[in-house]
Specification:
9-stranded mixed β-sheet; disordered C terminus; alpha+beta; single-stranded DNA binding; 31% strand; chromosome; 1240 residues; DNA-binding; telomeric DNA binding; CTC1-like; 8-stranded mixed β-sheet
């Protein structure tokens, strides 16, 4: 058992042991804290000596202690010391180290961690607050730049230490702070933006700086300062007695202009107004110009609605301003108005007279009245808000309070621009409010002119957004629009959006940003050139220059923002992909099989005919069809695979067809790589549809369309476009978004190489053929590739490169040798196809210096037979790296006799059956384009046969021979391998066909076919407006005049008799007769049991001058029989049972032939109807020639025919019967006035 005394002893020893351990720990912590403070103090002393202490003075302990005391005072004032007297976690940072930083940061010595978190939450959920770092900033606040020259002051503020100088922004400036050393407790640093050409970051000083040394307080003047108030000061300006005397002005600051830089001088204007001390004076304002460099910093210290005194002012006349104004002098001072320190200066005499009011005489001209009704007046107001978004920083466009747009472009806001980001609070004085400006802008816009002031009220806690280096070029371009083009706000806002569209279209993969936006020596940028046509129309360039003095000082106020007119968006610049997509969307939205094949025509077509008629159609969108008008824009490139021209931007490429003036083709290859802008163009969408509609009844069901594909391209004239050359250095190498086949080809010749001139005499079509690249190539790996060949004549020998030009031609080995040559283009060299045209002189340029390269005979051909057929002695394959240049025709020797006119075959030779010259050339207008059966294909294919049939396209054209009133029609067929069809072969287009093969059908109709030697040149595009020209009304005898007769016409005639009539019900799949709706074809099962009706009738008509055999088909039979639609439908339904009803009417007195039983009701009805006056009646017949003659003279001479007139026989000459196809039959309005005897 332990005694009490021993227990007390044990407790005493334990307490003593515990007390000794705690004291040791406390002493250790104090020792560590002392060491940390000592190290911090030593580092601070070193920094102060290096960065703050003047270089010409020895370091003093007083300076170091004052800085440390200042730090302690701020640190301890916020209760953040936590037992530490110094912010040991903070370190001093020099200006030099700040400038070397690449990331923004902030430091708040006077804020705790929780206070920083609260402050950072102001950035919002989507914001990115500035990261906090524990740094101490110490420096001198000054308005002097690094060179310390007074004249270099421009109103900017800087923080300077021994290591450098850094620009800064401060909310509230006290002029007494300048030149003193401060510790900045709360600040943020932002590195230079990419658009900042000075490459200088800046400081944002959040709170008031803390002086290291106490600031001296300026004593009050011993005597009151004599001052003039605004009312009297404005009167002094009108009199010359006191103009040379310096005066002091006092009043309330009512207006403050921004800093204006013009004519290498910086200034601002402040206006003093009524002061509470100026009792009994009328309300007046007096402007004061401050332009002394050392006084420009006043702009940062002035606050509206405060009372100020300005001393040492004098009266001056500003150049370009008709009135005198008050200006400061080098001895002028700015101070706050103290009522006890001023005294109003008493003036006597005429100074007390009131200033006469100036009235402007309004003009009543009609133009001004109309402008007044269209224009609106902006509203001047004061506004305070927060920037919530940066819409376009280089253009000075921001979002305020998520409701308004703010435009600062009409001011020179270079200093304010670097602090503008979401979270900045602004106070706007005398800002213009514009509503409903249009041009794509939907929200109201606040815009400040040179009279208004933009005051910074708080900085943003957010980091700056992502910036790009090209913004400096954009800013320069936008300044050009404001200060040189002097655009109004609505047009300026539209120009901003248009330039953004253009940059997105072309940069950076097609053009570099600086090339597109930067102004070159004396030339505007490409971006401004693209906008120039629209800007010239809406705002023609003005010779007047924006006068800053008048804008700030003139009363009444006049500035570019005062009046505005709502702008209808003039143009838009869609990407090529968007343009093609919109065109396809509208084309397929308008695709309606019922509209393409309207009733009653479609009701008689079989499935094959129906689907073939729907296989191809086209849709045209003109630029005027878009709202707003869309402008076509892209880089012109040549396809290395398809041989066509294409426009390219970042979204892709679009094929195009260009025509020069006077329907001439494009021949100058220097257009490759140029920027093309076209306001007038045609967007063509060719629709190719694969369908299996059984009959016309299913045309409204889209399930029968198996596949559809569109070919989209644009066509326009060079005269309607703006061509802007782009240097080769501005173009990038091919990227994934720019495939190699659309890579721009530089038309400029190589610096080293050789060339040779040739005259192109003939060009063949572009087709797919298999070519052997070398003798060792395997035919198994060959693929069809586009290729073409041209024939021409060498003009002189080879020429070598000499400097920037070409040397003289080398002498030829054999001067008497034929210089005809065959040039073969395949592979990438097909890109020259669009520029090569007969009759032009070209220079073939190669970078190689191989001797005799152009003189190799037949080296590119495996056989001499093609050369013999072409009449050439040599063949040359154009290599991929070779280029072509267009040369002047002056280089052509006179004996060659260049014929630039397109070859034309004579009309007799074209329509005759003579085959001595089977290749013909002519110009024609395309009337129709349809998909048809191949010329040598079987008429029917077994079901399940997957063998692809040869494609075939039929063009029906109207020839355009000279001195021909009614051009004849002709069919042209195009089959494999001539696909795809060349661009521009559309109905309504004028086209020249060269070396088509002429053929004559078994029915003696002339038609033409494409061959490998065929050359097609589009002369004009389809007209924008089609005028429906009525068919000419003629006598039938006029058709016997041959070529002078129309192919289609109208005649008033009489039906003499009916020759034959046939009604059929046929299978829609195989065209076999279908009695009772069942197909009768043996050995095959048709996929459908659908039948359609078909009808035909042959009539003999005459009009007193000639007679004709007229064939009417399908619904025209009902017109010929005079049946109403319901009656005709009933007749066809009656013929469904037998499937075929045919009546043959022979000569009078003979028996009628019929395929049906004579006693059947339908046969009796039709026989009676065809011999009744209901059919044998006067009609107005619209027709076309059923048989196109092979020559322009009648095939048969007139023949003698005997007639019986009562008892007297008559013998007369009769012209041969004409064969016509019915287009329509109408009833005459006046049945008595028909034929040739109507005028007798």
């Amino acid at each position: 058992m332990t005694s009490p005394s021993s227990s007390r002893e044990h407790s005493r020893r334990s307490f003593a042991r515990f007390t000794g351990t705690g004291l040791w720990r406390i002493m250790t912590d104090c020792r560590v804290q002392a060491l940390s403070e000592q190290a911090w103090l030593e580092a601070a002393q070193t920094f102060i000596q290096e960065a703050v202490c003047p270089a010409d003075k020895e370091p003093t302990a007083h300076l170091t202690q004052s800085v440390i005391d200042c730090v302690k005072r701020i640190w301890c004032s916020q209760g953040r010391n936590q037992g530490f007297g110094l912010p040991l976690s903070y370190s001093f940072v020099s200006v030099q180290k700040l400038r070397s930083r690449h990331h923004p940061c902030c430091s708040h010595l006077s804020r705790s961690c929780s206070a920083y978190e609260t402050w950072a939450q102001e950035a919002g959920p989507n914001g990115n607050p500035l990261p906090q770092e524990q740094l101490l900033l110490l420096g001198t606040l000054t308005d002097l730049s690094q060179d310390l020259e007074q004249e270099c002051r421009d109103g900017s503020l800087f923080v300077r230490d021994n290591t450098g100088i850094l620009g800064c922004e401060l909310i509230d400036l006290d002029l007494s702070w300048l030149g003193h050393l401060f510790l900045f407790p709360s600040w943020s640093y932002l590195p230079p933006a990419k658009w900042n050409s000075s490459r200088e970051g800046h400081l944002e000083l959040w709170g008031a700086p803390v002086p290291v040394f106490p600031l001296a307080i300026s004593p009050d003047p011993l005597t009151p300062i004599p001052v003039l108030y605004p009312e009297i000061a404005s009167r002094v300006l009108r009199h010359s007695k006191l103009r040379e005397v310096q005066s002091n002005l006092a009043g309330k600051l009512v207006r403050l202009s921004p800093l204006v830089r013009s004519q290498q001088k910086t200034y601002f204007v402040l206006s003093l107004g009524e002061s509470p001390l100026a009792v009994g004076h009328a309300v007046s304002q007096v402007p004061i110009i401050v332009q002394i460099p050392a006084q420009l910093v006043w702009h940062r210290a002035l606050r509206p609605s405060e009372d100020y005194v300005l001393t040492g002012l004098r009266v001056s006349r500003i150049h370009g301003h008709r009135y005198r104004v008050w200006t400061t002098t080098p001895s002028s001072n700015l101070m706050l108005l103290n009522p006890e320190c001023v005294q109003e200066l008493e003036l006597e005499g005429p100074f007390l007279e009131a200033e006469p009011k100036r009235f402007s005489v309004p003009s009543n001209s009609p133009d001004q009245k109309e402008q007044k009704t269209l224009s609106r007046n902006s509203t001047l107001l004061h506004y305070r808000g927060t920037v919530t978004g940066v819409l376009n920083e280089p253009a000075g466009l921001y979002e305020l309070d998520r409701q308004l747009e703010l435009c600062l472009a009409y001011q020179q806001f270079h200093g304010l621009r670097r602090v503008m980001r979401p979270g900045v609070c602004l106070e706007l004085q005398d800002v213009h409010l514009l509503q409903s400006v249009g041009g794509g802008t939907t929200r109201p816009v606040l815009a400040s002119c040179l009279r208004g002031a933009i005051l910074l009220r708080s900085f943003s806690c957010q980091k700056p957004g992502t910036q790009s280096s090209h913004q400096v070029h954009e800013a320069t371009l936008y300044e050009q629009l404001i200060w040189k083009r002097q655009l109004g706000l609505p047009l300026y806002l539209w120009a901003i959006r248009a330039l953004v569209e253009l940059v997105c279209k072309l940069c950076p993969h097609v053009l570099r940003h600086h090339q597109f936006l930067q102004h070159s020596s004396g030339n505007p940028s490409l971006g401004l050139q693209l906008l120039a046509p629209a800007l010239d129309d809406l705002a023609p360039p003005s010779s007047t220059i924006r006068n800053a003095h008048n804008e700030i000082l003139e009363e009444p106020h006049h500035c570019p923002l005062q009046k505005y007119t709502r702008l209808q968006t003039p143009y838009s610049f869609p990407t090529l992909a968007m343009l093609a997509e919109e065109g396809q969307h509208k084309a397929w939205a308008s695709f309606d099989p019922k509209a393409l094949l309207p009733l009653p025509e479609a009701a008689y077509l079989t499935s094959c005919q129906l689907n073939r008629r729907l296989a191809w159609s086209w849709f045209c969108l003109r630029s005027s069809a878009f709202h707003p008008t869309q402008v076509l824009l892209g880089i012109l490139v040549a396809s290395c695979c398809k041989g066509c021209l294409r426009l390219r931007d970042q979204s892709g490429s679009l094929s195009c067809l260009l025509l020069a003036e006077d329907s001439q083709p494009v021949t100058d290859s220097r257009l490759i790589g140029c920027l093309v802008r076209a306001e007038r163009f045609q967007l063509i969408i060719e629709r190719n549809v694969k369908s299996n509609f059984p009959s016309w009844k299913e045309l409204g069901m889209g399930d029968f369309i198996q596949k559809r594909k569109a070919r989209v391209y644009v066509q326009f004239f060079l005269a309607d476009s703006l061509i802007l050359p782009v240097p080769r250095s501005a173009l990038h190498a091919p990227t994934p978004s720019a495939p190699p086949q659309t890579e721009p080809t530089c038309p400029e010749g190589p610096h080293v190489g050789q060339s040779r001139l040739f005259l192109l005499s003939h060009k063949e079509t572009l087709i797919k053929l298999n070519f052997c690249a070398s003798s060792r190539a395997s035919a198994e790996v060959l693929k069809p590739t586009f290729s073409f060949q041209v024939s021409g004549i060498w003009l002189g020998g080879t020429q070598r490169k000499e400097g920037t030009g070409w040397g003289p031609p080398e002498p030829l080995k054999d001067e008497n040798k034929d210089q005809k040559v065959l040039l073969l283009f395949l592979g990438s060299s097909v890109r020259w196809f669009a520029f090569l045209h007969p009759g032009q002189v070209y220079r073939l340029v190669t970078p190689h210096s191989t001797p005799m390269l152009f003189e190799a005979e037949g080296s590119s051909c495996t056989s001499q037979r093609p050369l013999e057929l072409a009449g050439c002695v040599s063949c040359l394959t154009v290599q991929d790296e070779w280029t072509l240049e267009l040369e002047s025709s002056q280089d052509v020797p006179e004996e060659l006799g260049v014929h630039r006119a397109l070859p034309e075959s004579s009309l007799p030779n074209l329509l005759s059956g003579n085959f001595t010259d089977s290749l013909v050339s002519f110009s024609a207008e395309i009337l129709s384009r349809t998909v048809c059966e191949p010329l040598l294909a079987p008429c029917w294919t077994k079901p399940g046969n997957t063998r692809a049939l040869r494609r075939c396209v039929k063009l029906t054209v109207a020839l355009e021979p000279a001195n021909c009133e009614f051009p004849p029609h002709l069919d042209i067929y195009m089959e494999e391998p001539h696909f795809p069809v060349p661009l521009g072969l559309l109905p309504g287009a004028q086209v020249h066909f060269s070396q088509l093969e002429k053929r004559v059908s078994r029915s003696h109709n002339v038609y033409c076919c494409f061959q490998s030697s065929t050359y097609v040149q589009v002369l004009s595009f389809p007209p924008e407006t089609t005028v429906s020209v009525p068919l000419p009304h003629i006598y039938l005898a006029e058709l016997l005049r041959g070529g002078r007769a129309p192919f289609r016409a109208t005649a008033s005639c009489h039906v003499v008799s009916v020759f034959s009539l046939q009604l059929l019900w046929v299978c829609t799949h195989c065209s076999s007769v279908c009695p009772q709706g069942r197909c009768t074809r043996q050995g095959s099962t048709c996929p459908t049991q659908t039948s359609v009706s078909q009808a035909s009738i042959r009539l003999l008509v005459e009009d007193g001058t000639a007679e004709a055999m007229v064939t009417c088909k399908n619904h025209h039979v009902a017109e010929a029989l005079g049946l109403h639609p319901s009656e005709w439908t009933l007749v066809l339904e009656c013929a469904r049972g037998p499937g075929r009803v045919a009546l043959q009417f022979t000569q009078p007195g003979a028996q009628m032939e019929s395929s049906a039983k004579m006693g059947e009701p339908l046969t009796l009805f039709l026989r009676t109807l065809c011999t009744s006056p209901s059919v044998l009646r006067p009609i107005v017949l619209s027709f076309e020639l059923e048989k196109r003659p092979c020559n322009i003279t009648p095939l048969e001479p007139p023949r003698l025919q005997r007639f019986q007139c009562g008892e007297l026989p008559l013998l007369t000459k009769m012209n041969p019967r004409l064969r016509l196809a019915c287009l329509s039959i109408q009833e005459p309005e006046h049945p008595g006035s028909l034929g040739a005897f109507a005028s007798c």
